[in-house]
Amino acid sequence: MAKQRGRGGSAKRPAAGKASSRNTPQSRKKASAPTRKIVFDTPAVVDEPRTFRLGAVPGATPGRWIDTWKQRMAHVTLELVPIDAATQRASIDELDAALIRLPLTDDTLHLIPLYDEIAVVVASAESHLLVVDELDAADLAGEVLITPRDDVLGPLDIPGTLTPEFPTLETTADAIATAATGVGIVIVPMSLARLHQRKDAGHRPLRGGPTSTVALAWPRDRTTADIETFVGIVRGRTANSSR
Predict the structure, then answer these.
(1) What is the number of alpha carbons within 13 Å of residue 95 lying toward its C-beta?
(2) DSSP SS3 for 109
(3) Angle at 98 between CA 82 and CA 60, to 5 degrees
(4) What is the pLDDT of residues 153-198, one digit of tens each?
């Protein structure tokens, strides 16, 4: 009598002519075949170093925009070029863009007003005009109003002010230095009063006085990606903002 095997019985053998799928040559070939990866050779896009030339009239304060530019556009050097308000239109043609003072009318330019500056009265540090926090036009009656050749506010209609008896001064710096001696006053945008600040002079806001608008300008036919980036910066767009 054949001895009985354990409960599991004898192991079953594969039927004749039926090879195990686990051990077929085809299965072994598939198992040993390495996985092929497709790699696309895409060259990296590298921006060429270049320079963005930005003009700025006296008193314009692009510092915070320049800081942002340096963070976002490290491969593009921003060169700040001082320009004069009197010759700002001609200067724009030699630059990528410029911070200028309005009014400036020219259909060949893009103009984006950025901010307005109030006018202030600059006088000697010992002047009675500085005892108050703000001045009205009526407070200036009897004062000699000094207007330099590089004035940016234009003619001022202030009743009661006097015309200087000395020749017209060339620059705002000269006019403020003269006002500091006590012989007259100068009315300028606040940024220019700060630019030419002196220990022997002070300034006070002029209520109802003229304003000076600082704007960004560039030729319409020379709009570049760099200019669009700078426009986005001055308008407060983030690096991920869409145009």
Answers:
(1) 25
(2) strand
(3) 60
(4) 999 989 999 999 999 999 999 999 999 999 999 999 999 999 999 9
- Is omega for the bond preceding 103 within 30 degrees of 0, making it cis? yes
Between strands 109-124 and 186-189, the pairing is antiparallel
DSSP character at residue 13: P
Distance in angstroms (rounded) separating the CA atoms of residues 73 and 94: 21
- pLDDT, tens digit, 9 for 90 and up, residues 6-37: 444 444 555 554 444 455 555 555 555 555 55
Output the CA–CA distances (angstroms, integers) from residue 116 to 102, 160, 166, in the order listed.
Answer: 10, 27, 32
Angstrom distance (rounded) from CA 57 to CA 110: 17
Report the C-alpha gap between 109 and 241 in whole angstroms.
25
What is the C-alpha radius of gyration for the chain, rounded to an integer number of angstroms? 38
**By the 8 A CB rule, do 87 and 106 touch?**
no
Retrieve residue 2's tokens. Answer: 């054949």
Residue 129 burial class via C-beta count within 10 angstroms: exposed 0-12, middle 13-18, buried 19 and up = middle
